Each structure stands twice: as C-alpha cells, then as structure tokens.
Amino acid sequence: MENKTIGLDKGWDYMQKGITKLKRILEGLPEPPFTSEEYMMLYTTIYNMCTQKPPHDYSQQLYDKYREAFEEYITSTVLPSLREKHDEFMLRELVKRWANHKVMVRWLSRFFHYLDRYFIARRSLPTLNEVGLTCFRDLVYQEVHAKVKDAVITLIDKEREGEQIDRALLKNVLDIFVEIGMGQMDRYEDDFEADMLQDTGAYYSRKASSWIEEDSCPDYMLKSEECLKKERDRVSHYLHSSSETKLSEKVQNELLVAYANRLLEKEHSGCRPLLRNDKVEDLSRMYRLYCKIPRGLDPVANIFKQHITAEGTALVQQAEDATSNQVNFIIILLV
C-alpha cells in the first residue's frame, strides 16, 4: 500500500473503516479497542496520501473530509439523540456527547496528524483540534445552548428553594460554555451568565419584597447573609469563578441596597433600636453586609451620627437638669 499511489476514494474508504470503528466505540457498541497496528496503518495512510507527487497529493481533500467526518456524525447521531431529550436528561446527554466529541477529536487528530504538522502549518489554516471543536459549536451548541441555559437556570432556582440538585452535572454543562469559547469567555458570559444574573436579580427581588414586610431587621440581615454565602458556594461548586463578584453584587443590590432605608429605619428593630439596646452582634452583621457595598455604610453612619448626637444631647440635658435642680435646692434652703 505504501509503494503504490493511493487513490482518494480507495484511501478514504480505508479511513472510513477506522472512523466507523471509532464511532462504534463512542456509542458503546461491542468493538475491540484500536491495536497499535491499526493505529499505525491509519496514520500511515494519511501520511502517504499527503506526500504523493501531484496531482496525487490529497492534503486539501483530506483536510475537508476530516471536517465532513464530524459533520456527518453530528448530523446523523449526535443531534437526533439530543433532540429527543429534555431538561435534565438533555443536559446529561449533552455532557456525554461533548465528552465523546473530544475523544473523537483527539483520535482523528492523531490519525490526520501529518496534516497538522505540515499542510496546516504552511497554510495557516485552523488546526485539526479547532476544526473539530468548531463543528460541535456550529452544529450542536448553536442549536441547543438556549434550551441548555434555561434548564440550568431552572435547576439553580430549584436549589435556591431547598431542592437537592446534581451539582456535578451543572459544573460539566457550564464547562462546555467555557470550553466552546476556545480561550474566550464570551460564550459563557453572553449565552449563560447574562440571563443567569437577570434571573438571580428577579428571584431575590421577589424574596426581598416579602421578607421586608414579614421580618425584623436582624432576621432580614441573617437571611441576606445566608443567601450571599450560598451564592458564593454555588460559584465554588459549579459556576465559573469570574461570576462571583457579579453574582454577589446582584444579590447585594436586590436584598440590601434596594431596601436599605426601609430596613435600617424599621421602627422596632432597625438601626436605632439596635444601637439603643446595644445589640452588638446584629450591628456587626449590619456592618459586615453594608461595608462591602460602595457607599453602603453612608445611611448607617448617618443614623449612628444622629444616635450619638441624641445621646450626647440627652446627657448634656441631664447634667443641666441636675445642676438646675441643685441650684433650686440650695435656693430653697437659703430661703
């Protein structure tokens, strides 16, 4: 095979057998793994077809067929398997298909390695790895990412309501948004994070509007502190680390900034009663929550200033009253 010129159709027929075997392995069908001899024969076939003298140098045709192999597999197998599933089942299928796709890219890139080293390098074309990932992005990701985003946000809200969810699944799904950006964060930010943050704002806006009516200031602050902790926990388990600051700001804005005046001015439990009754723990929590917000401590400081002024004025008045009483007492004695 190595000494004779290999025609494009004959060579590709041989490569197709290797690709079919790889697909069967990925689909979990009974198929023995590649032997080193099979791997070498597939690699050598590509090498020979790319190094034959013109017009039998089939580098460009093989580069095109490499892409077509992915497109055919995605169209015939991957997309139908995703279209028939919904919600969490669709997420699980997507994670499996993405993992399989990366395995397929890795193996086919090995078979076609000669293209990467010489043909692609000389022509400044996208690498085999880029071509493989781009196929998934253009054919699979573009079709499903909106449904995937909605399913993930639904699960996050369920967790906020106390339900147990599969955090590892969410981590794997959100890794796809990151990886599909191929070094950029725009897919994660535009296709997932923006709507997730909007939903977060709406969720906590609803919570805040009921809590501010029902709860005392200390209870409201306890709930707010716990919510912020749980959102940071979500970042550590499945959201990308770049979401932490944006997520915290969104929660702070809905729970603390939007209701700052009503919360701090609550008649029987707001900042003034806490100061009057020396509620150090509650005041410490108030400081912790508001010191992280730009100018968040301003209204607290104003109330504190008013409290100090009022206390000082009261003490001065007491002293004046005491002095006045003493003078009156002396006058009465003298008279």
TrEMBL record:
GO terms for biological process: ubiquitin-dependent protein catabolic process. It comes from the Eukaryota. One of its GO terms (molecular function) is ubiquitin protein ligase binding. InterPro entries: Cullin, Cullin_N, Cullin_repeat-like_dom_sf. Residues 31-331 form the Cullin N-terminal domain. Pfam families: Cullin. Belongs to the cullin family. PANTHER family: CULLIN. This is Cullin N-terminal domain-containing protein.
